[in-house]
UniProtKB/TrEMBL annotation:
Family matches, as PANTHER family: FAILED AXON CONNECTIONS-RELATED, METAXIN RELATED
Domain spans labelled Thioredoxin-like fold: 54-141
Phylogenetic classification of the source organism: Eukaryota, Metazoa, Placozoa, Uniplacotomia, Trichoplacea
Protein's recorded name: Failed axon connections-like protein
Residues of the Metaxin glutathione S-transferase domain: 199-262
Annotated keywords: Membrane, Transmembrane, Transmembrane helix
Length: 276
């Protein structure tokens, strides 16, 4: 057995203990909320975005579109059941996964941003969301960021993590992401092939959007929150010289205008949030 094996075991145990101590303390510090106010657990801001997570951006944009009262918790506490961020608390109940969260909030608050969508539009929205969240996200964001070690460091430092958490994420996260990409399948392609996949997906979204204000008309629906989460991360979150970011800016002007429109209409505090 390799002499490094005991060291690896000890290191893993130390990492787990540090994470439990940090996140356990954060969970204990939480103050009670008023009835029917959502507590949104998310990452710290990482300039030039309020969050580098497309799912955090999706969920908070939805809360703003739906005019649901909420407060943010930046303590980096992960959900108990699925170990994910973002997650929410509502009247003592904890809910994870953005799609299940939005379904729950729609029912609880009797909100329906999709009420004016036809059955065909709902089907298109479902397909677009699945494509962008299960495919494009890997191709367009994770791959570009985690192949660029300097950008990993910049992103994590911008999130204002405690020094030991920064080191853990810096040296563990990149490897985990590459492993997840291989499991997904997209990590088995070349960089050029992955970029081609992402561009094809984004061209499809651009074609559906056309000249409309939002994906399916003049009013936002839940699909717009999801699209904004991913496309805003491509435009603002990737290295500015990344080929995909440049492609969107140069060849898909309606997606640029779309992101700016949602940002202007629902994120008037964008700059302040970017420096949280």
């Amino acid at each position: 057995m390799s002499s490094l094996f005991p060291i690896a075991i000890i290191s893993a145990v130390v990492i787990v203990l540090l994470l439990k101590i940090y996140f356990g303390n954060n969970r204990a510090k939480r103050e009670p909320l008023p009835t029917n106010v959502v507590r949104l657990h998310q990452f710290n801001a990482c300039r030039p975005l309020p969050s580098c997570s497309p799912f955090v951006m999706k969920l908070e944009t939805y809360l703003r579109m739906a005019k649901i009262k909420y407060c943010n918790d930046f303590s980096m506490t992960f959900g108990k059941r699925k170990g994910k961020i973002p997650w929410i608390e509502l009247n003592g109940e904890e809910i994870e996964d953005t799609n299940f969260i939005m379904d729950h909030l729609n029912e609880f608050f009797q909100v329906d941003l999709d009420k004016d969508l036809s059955d065909e539009d709902r089907a298109k929205a479902h397909a677009l969301k699945r494509m962008m969240e299960e495919n494009t996200r890997w191709a367009s964001i994770t791959n570009v960021r985690f192949q660029n070690s300097a950008h990993i460091s910049h992103t994590l430092k911008a999130a204002n993590l405690p020094s030991y958490l920064y080191l853990i994420f810096r040296y563990v996260l990149a490897g985990k992401v590459h492993k997840d990409m291989k499991k997904h399948g997209i990590g088995r392609h070349s960089t050029e092939e992955i970029q081609s996949i992402a561009i094809g997906d984004l061209k499809a979204v651009s074609a559906v959007l056309g000249h409309k204000k939002y994906m399916f008309g003049d009013q936002p629906s839940t699909i717009d929150a999801a699209m904004f989460g991913i496309i805003s991360n491509i435009i603002y979150g990737n290295p500015p010289e990344s080929s995909l970011t440049l492609y969107v800016k140069d060849y898909l002007p309606n997606l640029n205008s779309y992101v700016e429109r949602i940002k202007s209409n629902f994120w008037p505090d964008w700059e302040q949030r970017c420096v949280h």
